[in-house]
Structures are given as structure tokens and as C-alpha cells.
Specification:
Layout: E1 3-6, E2 11-14, E3 18-19, H1 34-46, E4 51-53, H2 62-74, E5 79-84, E6 86-89, E7 92-95, H3 99-113, E8 118-123, H4 132-144, E9 148-154, H5 170-179, E10 187-191, H6 203-210, E11 213-217, H7 249-254, H8 256-268, H9 275-284, E12 290-293, H10 299-307, H11 315-322
Parallel strand pairs: 3-4, 4-5, 5-8, 8-9, 9-10, 10-11, 11-12
Antiparallel strand pairs: 1-2, 6-7
Helix pairs in contact: 1-2, 1-10, 2-3, 3-4, 8-9
Amino acid sequence: MERRTIGAGALAVGTVGLGCMPMSWAYNGSRQRGDESARAVHRALDLGVTLLDTADMYGPFTNELLLGRILRQRRAEAFVSTKVGLLVGDQHIVANGRPGYVRRACDASLRRLQTDVIDLYQLHRADPEIPVEETWGAMAELVRAGKVRALGLCALGARGGRRSGARLHDATLRQLQRVQQVFPVSAVQAELSVWSPEALEALLPWCEARGVGFLAAMPLGNGFLTGTLTPGEGFEPDDVRARHPRFTAEMMAANQPIVAGLRRVARRHGPEVTAAQVALAWVRDRGRHVIPVPGTKQCRWVTENAGSAGLRLTAEDVAELGSLPAAQGSWD
């Protein structure tokens, strides 16, 4: 698989990454199987999908533990990305950016991941009670201590820090400008997909201008862009999509033209090409510094997603995808 670089340190990763969150958090809890998820990670590494994206809050902690069992055998083949800054409580999630906590959390992640260094340590969310420079400074100390190789920042969500009339990523850009003065940002992770292209407006250009890697989260639209979800079929209560405005039966039906467009493009490339692969190729082609990170817990989808690395979209494809109708339904 083609390799791409993250940040000034030129950290090399496969063109497609693997989001490990669904293996133990947020999606279809009854279908989470440790053995199946482990096979999916092994399959990803076999195919050159080296970037494994996790976080201490996924589970919490169980996602890192799962990866640790695999990294014990295959650490040299993997690029390990995990996150700090969010604590999971009873029915709530809170931010903690205190420097002492960051140091303890890093040591705990290293133990769970069974490694002596984290390739990319990302700030999941800034703590509103702690200046982000203090949190970032503690993370920078971890780089100097040899526990972390590079630092990344996760973009705020649609609601986080958004002011009336502001663009979606204005708050994230302000954070990036502040932390960049403390220690270089190597990667930014934010949502980017055919139906959520907002990062193209300002966030992606900011990264490109500074040689910062862009990890495209949810490049398959939480599964919608694969075309495998049936409107009205419903989701398990613990699935984040069960409460998501874009995943009501009405909105899923209204957004089917987007999936239809992806399928039309896929058919031009042969019967084995899927809508998901087209969606991932579109994200990948937004820039040399962009790495789509689709999440899954099944080998079949890992294989399909990795196959998008070899798909080359034509100018006609790009024009058709660019003319698809905008997604309906709030993303909040």
C-alpha cells in the first residue's frame, strides 16, 4: 500500500487507516467480539493498513487493551495513535487537561498498549478549565521524554465552541494557533466525507499550508455512505446513531441520492468496486497529507476499505461526486 507522511517528522503510514473505536465503543454493542476485532486488526496490518487509531476512553480502556495484545506480537508493523483528555463517567463524559493527569494517562496507555512509545498522541478535547497551552506543554514533555513521537489535535464537534455565525472549525483553528506556539502539531483529526465536507473550507487548507497530516474521521459517514444501512431498520440503544438526527428513517431515505451517486461512480470502475471504496478514494484525494480512517470491527470491511487505496477516480468521477446534493438533516 502507498505510504503517506504525517507532520514535519515525516512519520509514514499506509494511505488508509483503521479506526478501532467500533470494536468496543459507540456502535452495536451486542456485535462486539474481541476475537473478531483482533482478526480485523491483524488483517489490516497484513494489508499495509498501519495506522491504528484508538483512545483511552473507548471502552473505556478496553480498546487499548485489545490493541495491546496484538502489538505485543506486531509492534514494528503498526503506527499507534491514541488520545487523551476525556474521562468517561456514569452517563457522562468530562474533559481533563491537567498536566499531571496527562502524564499519568500516557503511562497508563503505554501499559495497556504494551509498547514503550506512542507514535501519535492526540488531545481528544481541550479542558475548558485549563489553558490549552498547559495541556499541550505536558504532552510536549512526553515527546522529550521519549514516550511519544508526535502530537495531534482532534477537532471540536459541531457544537463544541461554536459561536453564532461562525464556521464549523473556527474554534479548532483558534486552538491550533495557540498550541502551535508551544510545540509543533503533527496531525489534526476531524470529520471529512462526501456528505460532511466542511473541513475543506478552512481546516484542511490550514493543515496543508503547514505540512500537518489530516486524519479524516468518519469518512464513510458512520456507515451511511457504504449503502449497507436500511432506512427504518433501527439501531441498538447504545449505538450513537440511534439518537442522531441524520439517522432517522426519514433523513436516511432523503439522503439516498448521495449513496446512489457513489454507486454510479463505482459501477464505472467494475462490478467489484463498492460505494464505500469510492467514498474513501474521494477523501484520500483531497490532499497528499490526508489519511482516511474508517472504523470497523470486521475483516470483510477492513479488506474492502484497504482496497480503496488502489482506486483512481477520474475527472468525470470527481465532477459527479462534487455535484451530489448536500446532505439533509442536522449534524448536531
